[in-house]
Design a protein that fits this description.
heterodimer; A: about 120 residues; mainly beta; seven-stranded mixed β-sheet; four-stranded antiparallel β-sheet; B: about 110 residues
């Protein structure tokens, strides 16, 4: 069965860095685009970034452009989000999700909480 | 960027009620719209994609319609397990965007 498992969240000071991982299983990871979506406590959903199936293209939300980098290792079936220069308003649960040609965003991970606090 | 405006942001309804949620896009997005249900502490759950296609396993009381700039999610007869927050999302162009959400609570 399809599984997406995020890890790497935690408490970090403003200005520091953190890398999130999303381990995928149960499907052909190297054939699908993958996304990160976040949700600040008590707030709505915010799309963060996407990477194409082969890692050749990436797109970002304006709020994270230049600070966050999405990447993937298809040999390890793992998606990453490198977050630099973290700000207080980056505090959120971060989800990874897959996008198939037929049904977008059909599977999501359980989320990992990132708390940016001094 | 394409803005999505959901209305209402909050809805109080009773079991058995027919419920309609609207999502308006700031520019045309064809049928590149999806709807999610989210319960507290859980990841969003896909309900409808391409504006009106029901995701497998989703009860038929959920339906979606619309194209261009105006879309609706309808729950024909609200059930206790439907009390949750609902979001629309456009997949027409990057950056992808979500509506602000509609919280459906028990009257």
């Amino acid at each position: 069965q399809v599984q997406l498992v995020e890890s790497g969240g935690g408490v970090v000071q403003p200005g520091r860095s953190l890398r999130l991982s999303c381990a995928a299983s149960g499907f052909t990871f190297n054939s699908l685009p993958m996304h990160w979506v976040r949700q600040a406590p008590g707030k709505g959903l915010e799309w963060v970034a996407v990477i194409t199936y082969d890692g050749s293209n990436e797109y970002y939300a304006d709020s994270v452009k230049g600070r966050f980098t999405i990447s993937r290792d298809n040999s390890k079936n793992t998606l990453y989000l490198q977050m630099n220069s973290l700000r207080l308003d980056d505090t959120a649960v971060y989800y990874c999700a897959r996008q198939t040609p037929a049904v977008p965003f059909d599977y999501w991970g359980q989320g990992t909480l990132v708390t940016v606090s001094s | 960027d394409i803005q999505l405006t959901q209305s209402p942001s909050f809805l109080s309804a009773s079991v058995g009620d027919r419920v309609t949620i609207t999502c308006r896009a700031s520019q045309g997005i064809s049928s590149y719209l999806v709807w999610y249900q989210q319960k507290p502490g859980k990841a969003p759950n896909l309900l409808i994609y391409t504006a009106s296609t029901l995701q497998g396993g989703v009860p038929s009381r959920f339906s979606g319609s619309g194209s261009g700039t105006e879309f609706t999610l309808t729950i024909s007869s609200l059930q206790p397990e439907d009390f949750a927050t609902y979001y629309c999302q456009q997949l027409n162009s990057y950056p992808l965007t979500f509506g602000g959400g509609t919280k459906v609570e028990i009257k």
